[in-house]
Design brief:
heterodimer; A: alpha/beta; Rossmann fold; six-stranded mixed β-sheet; 14 helices; 16 strands; globular; disordered C terminus; B: alpha/beta; eight-stranded mixed β-sheet
Chain lengths: 433, 320
């Protein structure tokens, strides 16, 4: 029987892990993921799961142990954040290249430096080309639902890839929400038993995992990873449909809100989509036909489908909670993907980027509203005034912040140049002159 | 009854490491691997850190391994084997897999063990996974072209501790990893050398029978890095032991035992002079380095004698 519980995102994911009952969990604590590991350790201590829990000495070893465990031939999970994911980086690639299904909740937190514990997406975006499937969640319910579906997606015989399930650090992970927790048996029925492929523990049929692979085969093996990711898209949709039939909440590649007749679209990942809906409603009430597209699947990126959904809009504002440093205009990775997809699938409208919320900085409805209004105007004019805007940052929103950086480094928070910018009407809400 | 460790019996067995691999002629690593795997009657799963052994035995689409084998990365063999061993325990406990008494073995060179892999190794020791970690210690990063490691001896000429006009080679003594392993309080730790093959095989048997982690440090001569002839592998190994540079001992639950005491402890020079990597030490201005190496060997040997409660009470390994 489905229970309605008051849970934060981490507790909801821990509940999913309890129900999934993995054969091995290897994990290392890191803020803000920690309570997932703590909850799970308690489930083990209370005998509520059959899992072997390996409290490893680092995230590198967490992922390494998961790789060993998955190759051994059983269901495997870990969870991490930020620096933990960065430390895993080397082996994150290996997990995907060995085609080992496993599920890793990632509680998004800004990468050092400087050190920060709050939400942005720089950690999972740093691993976006590692060959994993990446699912973003807006709230605790989605984090829970995605974790359950991720098992099916990862283990599908046409996929056999690891899956990251993201939620926003603190914003989702530590905020208590209403979450529907499904019946344990129903979840176990949905995910089914684990089917190992070439398990190392089948000692009568020895296999060699991770051989030296030179120019004569390496390329084909990379190509096979791509095939698996191609298959993944259909499998994600199929699992999302089946999940909807069983539990009443259907999932696709992305979610739209009032997008069908929209003239301006906002694209944003994860928890910010909730705020964005409020803004869409407000602008609609004022006569601006705004709509929202919230990607759920970032890898494999559903380019064609997203552009098809955006077809008809006059302009798109893509909001990124991370920077692709040194990429075009120092924009964000989501924007770069959508821009490329628009070129390929012929969506010829202004597509601008708003980078926001780095290091956990709050993004307000007013800021999002401003972004949509500016973009709507760009759509009307057929031309954007500004391509990339850093929303809610001190200093020049185009990213030219050398003066301000120096001021901050010198401990001078009067930020003289800011005041000048503010008077020029660039809107610096954060100025404390 | 375990298979007796006699040449007659062992010759009957199919090697678990197939011939045809690309390791150098004279490399001690495949000798060690064959001895290790042939010492074990039970099924095994092997994990291999990045290194010569890994790259030379599994050039896709070929493999020399007739047992389940996995290479993950350089520094994580111990974490990887911990994951496999944990999965085994989990599946057996849940009744999803029959108990087969599988033995879990990890091989790493000294780079993957003393240096980059030490954290993962220490973690796996502390957590008490049931596995035997075997370091084939050739005293340097030989796979990448003879660079110094934490296991490279004082005075050795390597490409990153080169001897030169103002340098006598590596300026630091080697790390005593075997003692570090002992300090973890794991059930079984030992040192071995391929030239005393029965001793090595007995230690492998004790290691895999231990109720917890076991560590075996095996000196593994490398003719490329040590600058010697491929035919000299076994003789050099023997001299390392006869000079007490590489003592053969074991530590069972904290009890130190010497397994071999040379009738006559040879000067360390006898070992050094077999290898080109020490050639530059045999000059008047570098004589002090040899003396310092001798002093360090003597100091460690004396300490070992004390730990093993004096020579007369030490018990050599009885080979079956």
């Amino acid at each position: 029987m489905t229970r309605v519980m008051a849970l934060d995102g981490n507790s909801a994911v821990a509940q999913a892990m309890r129900q999934i009952n993995p054969d091995v969990v290897a994990a290392y604590p890191i803020t803000p993921q920690t309570s997932i590991v703590q909850d799970f350790a308690q489930f083990v201590a209370d005998g509520l799961v059959d899992s072997e829990f390996i409290a490893v000495e680092s995230e590198h070893s967490a992922m390494s142990a998961c790789i060993g465990a998955a190759a051994a031939g059983g269901r495997t999970m870990t969870a991490t954040s930020s620096q933990g994911l960065a430390l895993m980086w080397e082996v994150v690639y290996i997990a995907a290249s060995l085609r080992l299904p496993m599920v890793m909740p990632v509680v998004n937190r800004a990468l050092s430096g400087p050190i920060n514990i709050h939400c942005d997406h720089s950690d999972s975006m740093g691993a976006r080309d590692a060959g994993w499937i990446q699912l973003f969640s807006e709230n605790a319910q989605e984090a829970y639902d995605n974790t359950i579906q991720a098992v099916r997606i990862a283990e599908h015989m046409d996929v056999r890839l690891p899956v990251m399930v993201m939620q926003d650090g603190f914003i989702t992970s530590h905020a208590v929400e209403r979450v529907e927790i499904y019946d344990d048996e129903a979840v176990r029925e949905f995910i089914g038993p684990y089917k190992p492929l070439y398990p190392l523990l089948d000692v009568d049929h020895p296999v060699t995992y991770g051989p030296l692979d030179f120019y004569d085969y390496y390329f084909e093996h990379k190509r096979q990873q791509v095939e698996a990711l191609r298959h993944a898209k259909g499998v994600i949709e199929e699992v999302g449909r089946e999940f909807g039939q069983k539990f009443g909440r259907r999932y696709g590649l992305f979610e739209t809100y009032r997008l069908a007749d929209a003239e301006v679209a906002l694209v944003v990942l994860a928890s910010t989509a909730g705020t964005a809906r409020v803004v869409v409603d407000k602008l609609r009430a004022e006569g601006i036909r705004a709509g929202l597209l919230k990607p759920r699947v970032f890898r494999p990126f559903p380019a064609e489908e997203i552009i098809a959904a955006l077809n008809g809009v006059h302009a798109v504002a893509v909001m990124d909670r991370s920077i692709a440093f040194g990429a075009m205009h120092n924009g964000g990775p989501l924007w770069l993907e959508i821009l490329a997809a628009a070129k390929l699938y012929r969506l010829d409208v202004p597509i601008v980027n708003y980078v926001f919320g780095l290091g956990g900085r709050d993004v307000t409805p007013e800021q999002i509203e401003r972004a949509v209004r500016e973009t709507w105007k760009a759509g009307m004019l057929g031309k954007a005034e500004r391509i990339v805007t850093y929303l809610g940052v001190r200093g020049d929103e185009n990213g030219r912040a050398e003066m301000e950086n120096r001021a901050v480094a010198l401990g001078d928070f009067r930020l003289g140049p800011l005041a000048a910018d503010a008077s020029a009407g660039n809107g610096h809400e954060l100025v404390e002159a | 009854m375990p298979t007796p460790l006699s040449i007659r019996e062992l010759a009957q067995r199919e090697d678990r490491l197939a011939p045809g691999h690309r390791l150098c002629a004279g490399c001690a690593a495949p000798m060690i691997v064959r001895l290790v795997l042939n010492a074990i009657d039970e099924p095994v799963v092997v994990v291999n850190a990045t290194g010569c052994l890994e790259v030379s035995t599994t050039i896709y689409p070929y493999t020399s391994w007739r047992v389940p084998w996995m290479h993950n990365a350089f520094e994580n063999a111990a974490a990887t084997v911990a994951g496999i061993e944990s999965m085994y325990r989990s599946l057996v406990r849940q009744g999803k897999l029959p108990e087969r008494n599988i033995k879990f073995i990890a091989f790493g060179g000294d780079g993957g063990t003393y240096d980059i892999g030490l954290q993962a190794l220490s973690g796996a020791f502390e957590r008490g996974h049931k596995f035997l970690y075997i370091c084939y210690d050739n005293e340097g990063y030989m796979n990448t072209g003879i660079q110094r490691s934490g296991a490279t001896p004082y005075g050795a000429n390597t490409t990153t501790s080169p001897a030169g006009k103002v340098s006598f080679g590596k300026a630091q003594p080697r790390k005593d990893l075997t003692a570090i392993a002992v300090a973890h309080g794991i059930p079984y730790v030992a040192q071995a050398s391929p030239h005393r093959w029965k001793d090595l095989m007995m230690k492998v048997r004790k290691g895999v029978a231990a109720d917890g982690p076991a560590f075996l440090n095996v000196l593994s001569s490398c003719n490329r890095g040590w600058r010697q002839e491929p035919s000299e592998t076994i003789e050099t190994s023997r001299l390392a032991v006869e000079t007490c540079y590489w003592p053969l001992f074991e530590v069972e639950h904290g009890d130190w035992k010497l397994n071999y005491i040379p009738k006559q402890k040879l000067p360390v020079e006898e070992w050094l002079k077999t290898q080109g990597r020490f050639k530059h030490l045999f000059t008047p201005e570098n004589r002090h380095v040899i003396d310092e190496i001798q002093a360090e060997v003597d100091r460690r040997w004396e300490r070992l004698l004390r730990l093993a409660e004096e020579a007369p009470r030490a018990t050599p390994v009885k080979a079956g």
